[in-house]
Amino acid sequence: MEAKIKALIEEIRPYINMDGGDIEFIKYEDRYVYVKLKGHCLECAGQDFTLKNYILAMLQEEIEEIEGIINVEL
Question: What is the pTM of this model?
Fold first, then answer.
């Protein structure tokens, strides 16, 4: 499961990089994907929208078991 999630995140990483941000996969646990947003994504007012309406939607399209996504601030 983690390998598939990582591959999907790698597909969208270039689009996030174009805006000066980045995303790192942390873990998959209890049907939730944990990621860390970096760069401009940290300051972006639309980070929740991007996480839920773009990244989560894309992940759920491929992996129905995923219930949510959490941005981990390490």
Answer: 0.90
